Structures are given as C-alpha cells and as structure tokens.
Amino acid sequence: MVYCMYFFSFSKLDEILKKEEKASCQTYFRKVLSENRNLAIKLVNDTRITFPCFFVLMPVVEKENIYSLLREDLKKAYDFSKSVSANKPSNLKKDIKNKILLKWMVESSHLHNNLGGDFNEVVDVAVSILANEYRELSLLGIISELIFMRNRYDENIHDLVWAYFRFNTPITLKYIARFLDSKNPKDRKLAKKLLGCEAKSCKDFLKYMTEDESKMIYTDESFQYASNPRVYAAKEGTDHDLHKGKQV
Amino acid sequence: MIYIKGSKFDITELKSTYPVQSVEHKVLVKMEESSFRYNFKSEDVLKFELLLRKEIAASARALDRSGFGFAVFSKSQCNPEYWNRENNGGFSLKQGKSPSKAIRNIFENGRLYRNECATAMVIVYYGALLSVFKDRFDETFPYIYLMDWYIIDPLLQGIGYPRKAHDMLIGDRAYFKNPDVHPETMWLQGENVIVLAEDLYYGHGIGIANAETFIEILNRNRKEGAAKSAYLMDEVARPDFELLSDVYHERTATAQTIYWRNMV
Questions:
Q1: Which chain B residue's Cα is nearest to A229?
Q2: I need a surface site. Which of A65, A156, A219, B98 has the fewest CB within 10 A?
Q3: What angle do CA B198, B203, B209 make, to 5 degrees?
Q4: d(Cα B183, Cα A159) in Å, to the nearest integer?
C-alpha cells in the first residue's frame, strides 16, 4: 500500500531529484544498483517515494530488469504508465486500492516540476479516471494547483483542464478563482480565461457565484473545441451567465 | 438569401461563372436558398469567401493525403528544419524560415509531422490561405504558431469561436462531441472536422467520412455503461472572411500581425 509520508519528508531519491536534474537521479540510482542492489531496491520501494520520482526511474527499472522486485503498487503504477504511454487501455479495475494508487500519483505529482509531456500525459489520465469514475472531490485543490503550475512552465494543460472540469461541480470554479489573487500575471490571465469572466478578485467572483450556483449548467466545453471554452453556462430561462460580454 | 450593401443580390450572373459541381457554386446556391440573411459589404467579399471556402476544402483533402500523423500533444512531432516543437506540444515557426515554405512542407512531408485534430484544423486553414494569398502569404502571416486555437493569429481568431449557425457550409469547422468518452482516451472527447460536402467531413486521425462513421468511431471509445451517443454539434466556427478579404484586397494594415508577433 502507498502511504502519504511524502507530505512530511522526501525519500532519498526524491531529495536528489529535487536538487538536481532527472539524469542525476537516474545516474545515482544506477550507481547504487551496481554497488549494492539490495539498497537500491530498498530506495525505490521507500514508501515516501513520489510518483514523479518513480516515473523518472522507470527507464532504469526497465533496463536493469528489476520490475519483479518492486512493491505491488509500484508495479501497478509502472504498468499503468506504460499503458498510457502506448495509448492502450490500462485495464485498471475500479476498486479502493486502485483509487488510492491513482490518488498518490496525482497528489505527489505537484512535488516536482517540469518533468515533460510523457509524465504529464500519465497524470492527466489518472485525473480523468479519478474525476469520471471515482469523483474524488478531495483532489480539486491539488489538481487546480497542478494546472497553474504547468501553465507557468508553458506546458500543455488542455487535457488536465478538461479532466478537472469533468468533476462536474461548480466548486471547480471556486478553486480556479483563488488564482485571480495570484501575484503571478500568468496565473491571473489563465484564471480569467478558465472562469470566462472579468472578475478582478476571488472575493468578487465568489460573491457572484454564491448568488445562485444552481442556475449554472456544466457544458463540457474544452480547449479541443474552443479558444475560450464556456465550461459553465446559464441554465435556460435564467440570466445567470458567467460569460457576459464574451465573444461567442 | 444574399444581401450586398443592404440590397438583395441576384446570384444568376455570378453563379454562371462557376462550374455546377464546384464548391463556390454549391455554397452560393445554399446561401441563396437559405432563410438566413447572408450580408456582404461588397461582391468582392462574397467572391473572396467562396474562393477561401473552396481552398479550405481542398486543403483538408490535401492534408488527409499528406501522411500527416495523429498524436496527442505530448507526443507531437514536426520537421525541425522549419519548426520548433514547444513544451506544450505546439509548433512555432523557426526564426528566419519562410512561413509559406514551412506550411507547404507539412503538406509535402506529412510523415514528418504528428499532432492532434484541432491543430490539424489550423494547418488546413493556413494551407488554404497559402493557396489564396500565394506570394503575399509570407508578409501577411510572418509568424505562425500551430497549437489548436489556444494561441492563434488574430487574423484567424474566428476559427476558435464556434457559434450556432443556420446552415453548415463547405469549409466550416464543425465538431462531433463524445459526451461519454472513455476516461483513458481523452483525445476522443470529440473530433474537429472540416465540412467538405453534404454529409462529408475531414477529421484528422479518422479521415474523410460521413457523420455516421465519425459517430460510430467515437461511440466505440466510450466508457463502460455509456448512455449518450456521440453527435454532431449544431455550432460551427468560421474565420472572419470579411477581415481576411480586406487584408487580401489591402484595405487593412498589418498592424495586428505585428502585435501578435510580440505577444507570443
């Protein structure tokens, strides 16, 4: 079982990844493997390891043929990542253990930055499953952070944004609204785009929203469809439109 | 109904200049027979729209033949001779490279490129504009960024804003939506298409097919126990034909192009 220790302290391999490049982390792991195989296996199976760190080490796991020595949940994370990368179905059945595994992948993913498109793709699919199948609302805060973190590095956010809004609750908007108050102009610009309104602060937006959330309806629009997707629109017969004044 | 400068336009003479099976002829007749009022400020603008719609359809067919591959953004690929592959999976024109040569390269060496369906739509539009603007393409579109409509030339912004339309015309961008998509195949949440003829569409990754085929393919990629079928939305996106016509006929300065270049 994966534990949540990574909130309190990093594993040795995570510490290296945090301080240095991906390649340095892989080199260190390879070195320990060649010198003390048992220690290396212990390091990778550390319950505090984050998914990003494990993902970085996956090529070494494959090359050094140590898959069979991984903990069961890491084997599952490995298989899941490989399936996503190959655009094949993961066949991950819906159960509590797999939910915890997916949550670990998503929750720990914001602890390292800029790991590239392949990594992001796996996280996007994990978020999509958690949204569509488990409706795991406890992750909304972390996923919204992830969206803005990626945007700061000019990484792709389209699938992550789509998966995030598939939680299908106006609460998603409230988490996005927090970034209206960010000191980073890129955050503020993206927040306005995702909210589709001209609110100047989170307080303004929340005041507007709390007037009557029930008048809003989820549209499932995405960046695949439009430049400025209208994720929520006014229900028919109401004038509660977040997108007033927007070009449509 | 077609109106030019507020007056009803008789299409007889203009229609006779196009072959009966041509895109221009079909679009003109559909506009004329529609109960919707199509307004143009001049006959030149109408002719330009007909020409560009013809080239959009031709460009879509050409991209389909080019071998241009499908890939999600994280696995997109481009020819590094002309394009930089950006962090977000989009392609930006390399400094010093000719925009027209770079766009032409996609159509001529499609196998060197891979991207998803929305970016393919943008490439279709640039391919069409290249055929229309010819040797003026480079000065009109000096900076190109290919990444769906998230980052897009101000002259093409209209294609990122679908809206309800009375008629679906050849050259429009339409969308097949898949509301119950499987959570692991997010890229099949929908399919962007170019309308090629009555019930004939080009969608990157699927090819040229009728609506039934697009819907069937999307339906095969739904979640377990899905209740909703994929469907063709009743909204379309169009470039601002009048603005592009003005640029083509040199009635608009290119100031906004300069602004866009500095913005990205």
A1: B161
A2: A65
A3: 45
A4: 11
Among A169, A188, A56, residue whose Cα is nearest residue A122: A56
**Residues B148 and B258 placed together within one structural domain of the fold:** yes
Residue B18: inside a domain? no
Q: What is the ipTM of this complex?
A: 0.91
* Same domain, yes or no: B78 and B123: yes
Encoding tokens for residue A92?
Answer: 């991950």
Q: What is the pLDDT of residue A203?
A: 87
Please state, in angstroms and as integers, the Cα–Cα distance from residue B35 to each residue in A15, A205, B2, B170, following that order.
Answer: 68, 41, 10, 17
- The Cα–Cα gap between B250 and B252 comes to 6
B71 plus B157 within the same structural domain: yes
CA-derived radius of gyration, chain B: 19
Helix/strand/coil for A234: strand
- Within-domain flag for B27: no
- Residues of chain A with a CB closer than 8 angstroms to some CB in chain B: 84, 87, 89-90, 116-118, 120-121, 124-125, 128-129, 131-133, 153-159, 162-163, 166, 220, 222-228, 247-248
B173's tokens: 């961008």
Helices (runs of H) and strands (runs of E) counted in chain B: 9, 15
Distance from CA of A163 to the nearest CA of B (A): 8
> How close is the nearest chain B Cα to the Cα of A15, in Å?
25
Number of residues that this document lists for chain A: 248
Per-residue confidence (pLDDT) for residue B257, from 0 to 100: 58
Domain containing B198 equals 164-236
Please identify among residues 45-104 of chain B the ones whose CB lies closer than 8 Å to any CB of chain A. Answer: 72-75, 86-89
User: How far, in Å, CA of A49 to CA of A11, rounded?
Assistant: 5
Task: Write down the pTM of the prediction.
Answer: 0.91
Distance of CA B210 to the CA centre of its chain: 18
A238 pLDDT more than 60? no
